[in-house]
Amino acid sequence: MASIVVNQVSKSFGKKEVLKKISLTVEPGQIYGLIGPSGSGKTTLVKIIVGMDQASEGTVQVLDTTVPNLSLLQNIGYMAQADALYTDLTGKENLAFFASLFKLSKNEQKKRIAYAADLVNLTPDLKKRVEAYSGGMKRRLSLAVALIQDPQVLILDEPTVGIDPELRLSIWQELYRLKDEGKTILVTTHVMDEAEKCDRLAMVRDGVILTSGTPAELKEQFGITSLEEVFLKAGGKMG
After folding, report:
1. What are phi and psi of 197, to 5 degrees?
2. CATH number at residue 67
3. How many other C-beta atoms can be found within 10 angstroms of the C-beta atom of residue 59?
4. What is the pLDDT of residues 54-63, one digit of tens each?
5. What confidence tens digit (pLDDT) does each residue in 27-61 have?
6. Does residue 239 form part of some domain?
7. Is residue 116 part of a domain?
8. Do the domain assignments include residue 213?
9. Among 23, 35, 71, 103, which one is most buried in terms of CB atoms within 10 A?
10. Are 235 and 225 in contact (CB under 8 A)?
11. Helix-then-strand count for the chain, H and E
12. How far apart are alpha carbons 205 and 41 in whole angstroms?
């Protein structure tokens, strides 16, 4: 059973069509990358998959359930491009608040807060108010929030923007570990070295999927060695 099935999804805002008949399937234990420049439709698609926005046409199923569905949110970890944090609370209070939204025992909540904070290297800063955090620290806290309930599906919109290279590497190592546990990870990025780390990719431009496949398949298909060039040859351009 596929974890995410997007079937012929289109989305218009007024007369502007931002997604055009998008179809993709993400299997359990897969890291699936959506790559494309800003304004290509990646974030709109992600919001539809999470259930925060509705498609104008087409259907989305996550874990065999039609989206939007409130109870699904127990099983989806979502990290938006804009940090949705309470800046007047401490890092720990933010994590405790989001943990309290899920069906976790007090003991589980404590464990998950410790795990998520440690993963993103924020344990020493948990007592600080989020308003004192740097942009990179806020991104890291947002990622911790997405992981707090041990979700089956992780949907991460540009998760490593503004994060230093060393921590980015450790975050990707953790994504691989979660994938080995059978979790499904959908990630949007415009960083080509991150695209290389995905099992499958869909290259998005102007609301359409230009091409999709494994990084190796895409490079072979176009007879070139870099994903950047694949994207250009497929009719897109980054930036």
Report:
1. -85, -10
2. 3.40.50.300
3. 12
4. 999 999 999 9
5. 999 999 999 888 899 999 999 999 999 999 999 99
6. no
7. yes
8. yes
9. 35
10. no
11. 8, 10
12. 7
